[in-house]
Amino acid sequence: PETEGWGGWGTGSGVVRVLLEGSTQAIDEAQRAMTSALKLKPGQPGVPGEPGERLVVDLKDALRGHPDLKRIGVTVADVQPATVLVTIVRLVKVEVPVRAELPAEIRLDGDPTVAPPVVTVRLPEGAVGLLREGTTLTAAVSAEALSRLREDGPQTVQGTVRLPAALAGVQPAVVTPETVSITLRVKKQVETVTVRSVPVWLCLPPTEGTKWDVQVLTPYLTDVKVTGPSDEVVRIKSREVVPIARVMLTTEDLEAGVESKEAVFADLPTTLVFSVESKVVRLKITRRKGEPGEKGPGAPAGGGGDVPAGRG
């Protein structure tokens, strides 16, 4: 910590009556000057120059020697009360880093940045030990500012810097600056990713799997757009979940020898929406040799169920 100067505060509050003598113009100017606080500094006439509690300030001497009133040229004839009790402390300033504090429901894309990243805390010399090594201050964003957050890129909001709980009750303790700028990017709640190639799988009734050869002439659907909650879409991006386009063939489809059918997307969270220019999958269905109603030669294959494209 760096020694910063002096600070003081009174043990109470009240009204001080001051009798001034001088020209009308000087008294008017003095009255205007005294509408705001006149700062008394330790060591000036009437004010103790060393730290301590319940120290006596002689107000008449202090005001008579005050540079503002001396400049104006008025005489302080009387002051009531004549004295006040104050506490004087030696202040130090400590540089402390700041971090942004945001509600858990605000999901961010990356870490927020704070400017300035470090603020100055002015506090009594004896309280410096309360700021342990590694202490950081938090900057909180108002509910109104949070309500205006968007999902369209980086944005900057203002945060109010809070002193740590360890300094509760410490007087005086002042942070400068009191507000900082927080730049952040809100994670989109809904995202879209394009999957360049989605495999086509067949689904046949288990009773029909040994009767038919099915050739898939469209083994992949291309440029499939997947839209949904960000946490689900990221699973698609990382290929933790791989989408599948499934063609569901019924007994009637097989008997009719359909040449095409639309695929459906299955085995994925229902919150995801899939869109593609065309879901139509071209097929070639042939009854296997020796099966009743055979229309042409075929090749042996396994039973029913899900079958990747290119397998019967």
Gap between N and C termini: 78 Å
Structural class estimated from helices and strands: mainly beta
| Contiguous uncertain segments of 5+ residues | 1-12, 296-303
Q: Tell me the strand percentage band.
A: 35-45%
Radius of gyration: 40 Å
Largest sheet: 9 strands, mixed
Shape: rod-shaped
Q: Spell out the helices and strands N to C.
A: EEHEHHEEEEEHEEEEEEHEHEEEEE
| DSSP strand count | 20
- The average pLDDT score comes to 85
Question: What topology does this entry show?
Answer:
Layout: E1 2-10, E2 17-21, H1 24-34, E3 52-58, H2 59-64, H3 67-72, E4 75-80, E5 83-101, E6 113-115, E7 118-124, E8 137-141, H4 143-147, E9 155-162, E10 174-176, E11 179-184, E12 190-204, E13 212-216, E14 220-229, H5 230-237, E15 244-248, H6 251-256, E16 260-262, E17 264-266, E18 273-275, E19 280-287, E20 305-308
Parallel strand pairs: 5-8, 12-15
Antiparallel strand pairs: 1-5, 2-4, 3-5, 5-7, 6-11, 7-10, 8-9, 9-11, 12-14, 12-20, 13-19, 14-18, 15-17, 16-19
